[in-house]
Amino acid sequence: MMFKILILQSLYNLSDEATEYMLRDRLSFIRFLGLTMTDKVPDGKTIWKYREQLTIAELIKPLFDKFGECLSEKGFKASGGQIVDATIIQVPVQHNTEKENEQLKKGQTPEDWSEAKSEQKDKDARWTQKGKKSFYGYKDHINHNRSEFRS
Hints:
By secondary structure, the chain is α+β, with helices and mostly antiparallel strands. Helices cover 46% and strands 19% of the residues. It folds into two domains: 2-78, no CATH class; 84-146, no CATH class. It starts with a helix and ends in a 5-residue tail after the last strand.
């Protein structure tokens, strides 16, 4: 299990503390490790100690090389991953005409809007979906991206 944690950490470029958090938070990580929601996960210091022991024994590179070979034999390549945490910040729905919405999407303010009306309208919010539900507002997200496998 500990080596699998190092794989996740490497693919997603996570610190020890961020890895601990993701192990507690991400169902995909829990499944990858073969854990259940109630199982304990190693803390950041334990992850650091494990990696440090492998480093001292000069086993990090050989283990990751072997892992890469095993993936390659199965026709896979570890090339990174991406986690996007999306939170929707809802705002009041705007009741605009179709023509007004077209102008707003182009970054224009409708000509017939007074300055007061323009200031009270949220011209940057958009419709989006999360799951099967529609929301009007903004997406606030954190993007963890890793483009290549490192050992």
